[in-house]
Amino acid sequence: MDEILNNEDYKKINSKTKVITEGRTNLIVLEDSKTSKKDIVFYNPVMEANRDLSVSVIQAFLNEFDREEFLICDPLGGSGARGLRYANELEFKGELKVNIGDINPSAVKMINQNLKLNGLENVTVFHEDANVLLSKNFKLFNVTDLDPFGSPVPYLDSGIRATLTKGGLLCMTATDTAVLCGAYRKTCIRKYGAVPLRADKELAVRLMVGCAIRMASKYDVGLKPIFSHVTDHYVRTFLVTERGAGKADLAIENLGYVTLNGEEKSFKSFEEGYEKGYGGPFYMGSINNTKIVEDALNTAKTRNYSKKAVNLLEYILNESKIEQVGCYDIHEICSFIKKLVPPITELMEKLRENGFIVTRVHYNPYGIKTDAKLSDIAVLISEYNLKKI
Ligand SMILES: C[S@@+](CC[C@H](N)C(=O)[O-])C[C@H]1O[C@@H](n2cnc3c(N)ncnc32)[C@H](O)[C@@H]1O
């Protein structure tokens, strides 16, 4: 402790810090954080909901298995908020241990301070490059959480290798959303080995999942998403690692290409190969597991986590019940068929009256997921327009 207090870096940190509470965890953070790479130690209060969701989803994942110990690695720890919340808030009868690392010495000091503040004894802190920390722990972690600045791809291979455990969970965030959404096509091809589409934001998650699946398959491991979302400036997914060549083949079979004609999407399988005009490979299977989302929602509500997290889980629970790649954007459809835009709730009601299931999506205020075809929606929009004449 004395060593930390007398350290110049710590004094620099200490002069500008405050204590806040996130979930059930207290955290020393910088008072004047700019939430940029230039901060002495990174902490982003906007990501509280992200961490609330993460604790809730990992709790749901933990509840699924009977285990004696549960090892988590947060190799890009920042102020330690994420890893410390896992160590402090996950409820588990067995032994729960968390490794937190960061390459920035000031971050490591702050993580140690936060560790003491919460009186936690189940956390080990490492001043280490994330790839080194993960590579040293081949097949060790039940959960690895990659939360870098920008793209998780530089850490993905070592992250997968560290999580090749029975029933492992690989979580990752990407903040290079513009790349994944097609604003920087060449960068996306270079980093993710996939062609992006400037379309539905859900395709950004599906592209990132597809990239991880292709990377994991060489280890005869399949990855299966159990929870995914696109929020604020980032894309996040939670992938269960399933060992065996068969599981890896199954994951690959779920990859495919997409092309767009207005709001209509057409698909091609991975084996058919890339064709000009298509984007991908994307993951085409379910990106959310209803049971996990239900359980996570329950946790978030009982623990009084942020409204934002609860709200997102409620949306995603409904989305998880409809198998549709992406959504229909009502404004886009109306602009394409040159019709007035009906109130979204009215259109949803009409779809239900016609026997379809429908829900709004968390990432687009004009988006709906439904088992109706685009032509069914267009008919209902036209009927609404006739009424308005
Ligand atoms: C986005 S911040 C992490 C935020 C944190 N997970 C949270 O939830 O508050 C990314 C962190 O990665 C650290 N970092 C950057 N490159 C690294 C590397 N190669 N190895 C380990 N840490 C690294 C940075 O110092 C920074 O603290």
UniProtKB/TrEMBL annotation:
Protein EC: 2.1.1.216
Tell me which species this is from: Methanococcus vannielii (strain ATCC 35089 / DSM 1224 / JCM 13029 / OCM 148 / SB)
Which PANTHER family does its entry note? Answer: N 2 ,N 2 -DIMETHYLGUANOSINE TRNA METHYLTRANSFERASE (PTHR10631), TRNA (GUANINE(26)-N(2))-DIMETHYLTRANSFERASE (PTHR10631:SF3)
Organism classification, top ranks? Answer: Archaea, Methanobacteriati, Methanobacteriota, Methanomada group, Methanococci
Molecular function (GO) terms for this protein are: tRNA (guanine(26)-N2)-dimethyltransferase activity; tRNA binding
Broad EC category: transferase
Q: PROSITE patterns, from UniProt?
A: SAM_MT_TRM1
Spell out the protein name for this chain: tRNA (guanine(26)-N(2))-dimethyltransferase
Recorded family membership: Belongs to the class I-like SAM-binding methyltransferase superfamily. Trm1 family.
List the gene name.
trm1
A GO BP term here is: tRNA N2-guanine methylation
